[in-house]
Amino acid sequence: CHIICSDYSPMCMLQGLFTMKKASRLPFPELVSIFSLNPARATGMDNLTGSIREGKLADLILVRNDLPAPQVTATFVEGSAVFTGNGFSCTVVP
């Protein structure tokens, strides 16, 4: 499998990524690419999105993975923190 994507439920993607992390021998960065960069390449959008690079579009989430289920602790949209939770504080440095 080289690409996993969804057009109906982006939140399922997070659960899918961490389910694959538990079940797969692939390194985590490679799994992340299966869910991000590879779909962007397949749609010809990898110059705009799919990886964290200067000038690319990116919404990011911080996830705790030391709990029984992954837990989103912060969400950034276009460089701004739109959600922080569970006692974590986030600072965006330009």
Short description:
This protein is an alpha+beta fold and 94 residues long. Helix content is 30%, strand content 19%. It has helices spanning 10-23, 28-35, 37-42; strands at residues 59-64, 71-77, 80-84.
Question: What features would you describe in this structure?
Answer:
The protein has 2 domains: 1-51, no CATH class; 58-94, no CATH class. Helices cover 30% and strands 19% of the residues. It is built from 3 helices and 3 strands, in the order H-H-H-E-E-E. Strands 1-2-3 form a 3-stranded antiparallel β-sheet, with no helix packed on it. Helix 1 (10-23) runs antiparallel to helix 2. The protein is globular.
Instruction: List the uncertain runs.
Output: none
The best one-word shape is globular
User: What structural category characterises the helix and strand content?
Assistant: alpha+beta
Q: Fraction of residues in helices? A: 25-40%
Mean pLDDT: 83
Number of helical segments? 3
End-to-end Cα distance, whole Å, is: 35 Å
